[in-house]
Records
---
Amino acid sequence: MQRIFNITLMVMALMGCTSNVPSSPAATVTAQVAETAAPPEKPTWAIYDPDPDHIWNRVFRQFYRRAARDGKEYGLGELDPLLWFDTTYLLSGGSHQQAIRVLDEFLGMGAETLIGDALRRAMFQRDLWAVFDWLSFQSDSYASERKALETRLTQIIQRVALTSEQIQSLPDNYALAVQSNIFPADHQAGDPLAAFLPADLFQPDSAWVPMGREGGPIAMSHTNEFPFFGRSVFLVFVRSPDGRTATLDLIQSLNTDRRPVLTTGTDIALVRRMLLIDNQGNLMLSPLIETIQIRHFNPEQIFHELELDRPGLFKGASGLQLNTDLFLLFFSHGDEFQFSDRPKQATIPDICKGCHVNIPAVLDRGNIESILSYSRANFPLPDDRQPILFATTWMDEAKTVIDWKLNHGTWQTLKSLWNH
């Protein structure tokens, strides 16, 4: 826990609160954390069924809805539940009793049979699994309340689980996004800040190469820290503007050259892909992409992020849409709804630059230190080891992440309840 808090303070410093990094005027990063725009007065929580009072919707609303002090509701469009380390929502008072009642109602009526669509069942499991991991990661307070919720959530997670064949047959929402042509397929020189979505990102012979490391997941911090805890596979893709061979040479140079150089026009993508639990209790890599974060070096870094939207996905589209702001959950604490009058969100790209900062802060051709998989700047490997990087595949990285998750306390708690 202390490590998380320390890193949170570090991220805040990098965002411009108490920066010690030398900077030039052109490279100074100023954090942009703004009051969240008020959503509609009463959002319609009709995610899993058109009827807002459907039991699946009510379960989702109970765990994902957060209300500000002025009564405004948030969370409907959030990919991850708005729950922090020090959140007591769901653990005490009326919210806990309401959560117990709605879960008991779901279980008592066998509500897992009410929706047979595999995609909705997969997302519902994913959404409740995120809440379960938040509950099980901390057991030093509200232990009995956590256990009561964990037990019920495990039963629902188990009941809505798909077969391995059904998981493999879920839609390839990245391919759907490419086919939609909503985003250009490459960086636009005439509109450098515009988001783009590479059509060949996952093609095996393209200039985009997935990068792994010896000894663990490539995106170590995204894998093993709150709020992710290994429920997704994060994979880093690298693309040199000079083609696939140049990309492979670049990855090798990260291991051998004293100060490798990024060619202007290089791209880095961090892709988050969903893990699911099949009906036999096994972890499986699904086809569903949750987020895509792309950095284009021009030579300054240009950031954008696409994030999964449930309604769009359920309508048969990709569900991937441009995301411009987010609640600070990753490496963060301090519940925005318990400790502030108006919840605040951080803007993209400023929050990205908080960690992926130029060191030194000069917009030069190198910028190599901002690739944390290589530099490990502020996120060191155990014993400060230097990473050994290599070209990898989705399946190899998934195996690495699943092996990590199987040994994590959150999974061991869930598996114990699942088996009983």
---
Amino acid sequence: MEKYDMITKSNMKHLYYSVPQTIAHHSVTGCNMGTGDMLGTGTISGTDKSAYGCLIELTWKGTQPIQMSSGEERKFLQDGDTIMMRGICEGEGYTIGFGEATGTIIPALDESFYQP
């Protein structure tokens, strides 16, 4: 198993709108909701740096790099970086999760690829 650095950890309690408010906002214009529909929250930033929701916040617009366990620093994502997100909800006596969403940043295509 590969080793990953935890970059941030936040909590839905920091959302500006609750989940019911988000659903109301989504549906108030007549957009129907169906079984299995997913709604995203966007970035969830907490009240201290360990819970900031994105690299632009964590690195203060790239001026304060993050030190990785490998010794590398990151200001922004780079080609070859693998990102893993996990999410869970916990209540009294239960935990519900959606597993991991993982992806690797690949280099952009060379511009000559698009030339006739």
---
Amino acid sequence: MKDNAAVTDTPRLLVFSSLFPHQGRPNAGLFIRERMFRVGQQLPIVVVAPVPWFPLQGILRKFRPHFRPPAPRFEVQDGVEVYYPRFLCVPGLFKTFDGFFMAIGSFMRVRKLRQRFGFNLIDAHFAYPDGYAATLLGRWFKAPVTITLRGTEVPHAKTARRSFLVKALRSSARVFSVADSLKQFVVSLGIDAEHVLVVGNGVDTKKFYALNKRDTRETLNIPDNVPVLISVGGLVERKGFHRVIECLPALVGQFPGLLYLVIGGASAEGDWGDRLKQQVKQLGLEKTVRFLGAMPPEQLKTPLSSADVFVLATSNEGWANVFLEAMACALPVVTTRVGGNAEAVANSTVGLLVPFGDSTALEAALAEALSQHWDREAIVNYANNNTWDKRISLLVNEYYAILNKSPDRRRDAHRPDAGAQ
């Protein structure tokens, strides 16, 4: 294919990710938008967010209302153009070929953007199917491709998609990883360690900061003198809300009046909302657990500031932005030692780590966190020293280096540097 856009010294990015917010899924992929829109403040960007589709999904949605919420074809978000081309994706079938279908479905839109926007670099998120699709598009349009690892690579590598995932990573111009644990994982798959640069996520301290606890509790009708746990995330099995709930009967006995605030809703991974509510009912915890639904990021500081401890008993994570967001609101974090969690919760002054699947250890850690006197100012400082500025600067420099074929490789920036001891 003829190259229609001359490569210049200034990167013009086509951001490629099937997980991106839109009016039907306003909370999907916010962590990608947060990162790349900040890049967009320094470089021209356009977003292509492929949407899975098959002919009968409208009928299926009548029985499963949250299944693939309708997406627009186009939106402008904060001045950035976002396109949502469709690609064939039949639930449960042909998942190994999602990357190919995603590339085919996006081809015409990408072609038009090549002609009009003149992108010279494709920046994809998740190695499969998005990264694989992006490398096909990069080959067809003669543009280098970067891929950001975000955690799904671990389960995908256990399936028939592994070969496509590895091929995509090897075909890319650069691989970014949000956590060192993910970097080490793909290195174990045969990817050159020098090809992978760790660039962790940051926190927006203009959106996340501690409010007066008494005021926020009054807003949420929470008594001043009760201990409060909080979790934020999609209501899916992986996030582990049910693992926290099963610890609550014992904790209520130790901490009278204990409340657990659950913030989140259905996500691309599914919807465990009804199942969690049934679990609460079976355990007689209706007065202990409050489901507050999904909230936009700018509203989260109110419930976060009303709580005492943040908890996420997750089974797999790349880098959970919500940890630093909770810390910016002065909350210590209790979480599982999986994925990049130990890199975000880097020392015992900001939180506690427990083995995944150990309910006894989780219960003990929550009891300890609720009893312990935390230096909350130090926790806030930890978050404040991990804003987006350093991460975005590193990314922008790498994009320039790729286009200019520079051998310069900069040091990893994955570890929070907020005074980790």
